[in-house]
Amino acid sequence: MFSILGMINSYIGYFSMNAKLKSQVYTALGTLGNFYLLYVAYRFFANGFYLRGFLYILAFLVLAYFAYLNILYYFTKDKSSKYDITPKIEQLLGIKAKDHLAEYEKRKNQAPGYVQTNGIFKDEEFLPSVVTTNAEQKANIQALVKDLENVGYLDLNYGGMSEDDMLAIVREGSATSFQALAEPVALPYFELVERAGRMFIYGGANQMEAKPLGEVKTIGLLSAGEAAKRYKLSVATACLTKGPYKVAGRSSMLEKDADFELDVQIAYRDPEKELAEKKKREEAEKTSETMTVSDVPHHLSRKDKWNH
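Above: the chain sequence. Below: its structure as tokens.
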């Protein structure tokens, strides 16, 4: 029986599969294989070897308990049980389990330049936009990333996570891949530039080094040119995303190459709506002034009206 399980285990090693799926397969095989101990225990009892049979029963119960915990962890959403004694064992031995996922999220949020905007847009609304990049603009983005990394503006270190930490998170089923750029990072400088009726995103380490990084094709349901004629437009944020990433292999993390991309948010303001609201405020102010003057009694003298 154990030789059969060992053979199945060796065959599984030939396949590159998700770590969680592999753990589920091992849990299922281990649970089935555990019942072989129960059969051996029965044979010992049948032949009068009660002590050996009792020891095999104990081994079966211990392995069945851990199989139960694994089934909860890998096959259910709750992933915990009130009968789990491992926290008590950790407390007794003074072991503090490392929360790899919490550490990863904490390091991601420490990325410099994150959530940087081109001002505070209190009254503006955002419109979905489509930004395309040609070969030259893609090259500009990759070159900009290298420049920003050289000056220490961004770190391509996978959020400071080691490969062991990544593998632990993958086994927990909390993530399947990790970006070298852990969180989107806003460009130090970016602006929306119109050229011959076309809208381009310019960005760089500063204004003097800004280069075209993409072309805005549509804003909302309109073409970029039509939207520029109808609305006041501004780039609220322009962030670097994607890039190289790592995925879990059989025994280590494998790095995959990918280009960095640009993610932008376009803010707009409707001039006609703004003008209508301005007229409405002015009319409200005039009405308020008229009501204030009409409240003064007409029979009073000019001096009394002033004092009144």
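The CA atoms of residues 218 and 224 lie 5 Å apart.
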